[in-house]
């Protein structure tokens, strides 16, 4: 494809991905009240655990409306994940043949559950982080938490971990596209583990070592799982190439 064709393809995929997110945002707006109620649960747990007043505060006239928009957008991104994940694949492998379309189905069926599992892991860790981090405040103080700041914290945590869980699938995508080999993935395992450790250390409080390991272990397993799938794919491609060479009478020794 020419550069112009790539740009047209990118515009098409971005439009379809954005359309999916917009539709998801409508559902997110409907669910925003329930999500907002769920967000207040850790604050209530904070109040019960530390025995002091804790509440979410809306500091601006429009902050409640802005927060619901943010919630709707986040829910829209999560709900529409099958759409935009597929668009990423379709842009990376344009003009898909039959086998590549089968890969696309496998990509979406694996990436979506991993993304949702990552979001769920972030949501699971979040209340513990709220209680832990606010626990450094003096006992006789009141925790008046800005709703916008609090939601930004939750948003970054949930989506960051969700995307991190999907990254191994992109390694497989690059391998299937012929950009990255299984040997290259395995060769970088030390760097990958270091990056995963640093990411989980940043995403979780330094004092909460258990949460860090709960996030790091599945990410490491997913990385090596991606390497294993890439290895099997490389073996199949190599076998196919040897068969083609044999049919053409080339030296395959």
Short synopsis of the structure:
This protein is mainly α and 253 residues long.
Characterize the largest beta sheet: strand count, sense, and whether it forms a barrel: 2 strands, parallel
Write down the secondary-structure element order. HEHHHEHHHH
Q: What order do the strands of the largest sheet run in, or round the barrel if closed?
A: 1-2
Total helix count? 8
Provide an overview of this structure.
This protein has 8 helices and 2 strands; from the N terminus they run αβαααβαααα. The protein has helices at residues 3-50, 63-79, 81-92, 98-134, 147-176, 182-187, 189-203, 209-247, and strands spanning 54-57, 143-146. By secondary structure, the chain is mainly alpha-helical.
Topology of this structure?
Elements: H1 3-50, E1 54-57, H2 63-79, H3 81-92, H4 98-134, E2 143-146, H5 147-176, H6 182-187, H7 189-203, H8 209-247
Parallel strand pairs: 1-2
Key descriptive features of the protein:
mainly alpha; 8 helices
